[in-house]
Amino acid sequence: MGNRPSTIRDREPDFLPRLPLDKKIPPYALRRRGAISGVSHKPNSPTIERPRFKRRGGVCYDRTDSIAVYIRYLGDAISKQRKASNFSEFDNLPEVPSNVLTCDMKLPPIAQQRRFSVQGKVCPAQQFKKMLHHTAVYTIGADSSSKTLECDKLIGDWNFDLLAFRRISEGRPLYYLGICLFRKHELLAILHLDEQKVMSFLALSEQWYRAGNPYHNGTHACDVTQALNCLISTKKIYVKLTPIELLGAFIAAMVHDIDHPGVNQSYLLNSASPLTEIHGPSSTLESHHCYTAKGIIAESGIISHLSPADQKQVTDIMDEMVLATDMSKHKEYVDDFQKTCAHGLNLDNPSHRLCVLKTALKCADISNPTRPWRICKEWCSAVMDEFFHQGDLERTKSMSISFLCDRYAVDIPKSQDGFITFVVEPMFAIWAKEFESNTTKIIAENLTMNRLCWAELGHKSASNTGSDSEDNN
Fold it and tell me: What residues are annotated to the active site?
């Protein structure tokens, strides 16, 4: 056999965004090799009518399918990057129409509903099977009114050991946590969600996180989703949320970092990433997460049965919440929440509820230092590994090394103490002021303990450095 031709995946560095262009497209959507189309075929027809496509090179796409247009322009940008010998050649990237990023949920799905052979089976790990046996979660919609909801209690505990959950779920924590959450909050029954489509959405969401990222992977998404569940389950908030808002909030948490490339916005800008050309220099990653998530929502069909108004509300909530996780705009969102509270927080007001949901996701996204010390330390190790990997890439490319990304200069205990002091503690103090609960008390205790642990590690590190200096002299 001859050598297999290299693919886009073979030629792209691992740190570049994994784009929708790489996803498999079902045969009926292909008009020729490499074509992209969102036009569905006629039912029960072996032939496909020749559609009126707009042509760009060898790729065809329906003019009305904004997701296909997005993929097409993303592909153009990647091709341009592959041919470029220096950054100046990116001046000729294709101009993206202003309506490309307007995702209309009325569009046909990218692909027909994929049927995953997971129904009736939750996890091959015996320990996890045994735990779920007591919750009757063999399918999402199982009736368990007479059962002890052990799993439900676990995912509502702030000190929940997610890293152990990842091990017993054999690397699929987001999928199985999602099953437990949809079941606990009875979203399938209330919103008449199709069980198979929910399972498809959860599976696709987890697949689109990059397992190779030390930090921004499916486990992080699961951690943030579990934290959000704890925060919004406070009675004061929970009784005011509508089922649509609850669905939108959980979807936002699950997809808030989907297809994260493992590098930050600074790297994308300095390396002239195609994503910055498409989404602009502001909230580039967050915009990419939102648009990728909309493609998954459309492909899974999880909300396709809802009214257009409800579909729009779900995606609008998701957009607002995911965009709020942009740390470069952290102060802006915190000030907005404080201003809303100062004028009198009214949870009967939909805009106030959305403000609370955005703040809850922001808290959940930076909640690692509020977990028990053993878990907190593991999360810190993961995020610093990812930061240092980016710093190594920047060093090899002779780029300026981003903040906290230089493995030879960063003092980890000191950086963590600063993160707790200036970001995490003030954020959770604002939250606790409005929504004090047993959870906020546990958070305060963990923060105090973790700060002491980081200080102790800092002293040990300083002592060791001093001893080494004396030995060298």
Answer: 216
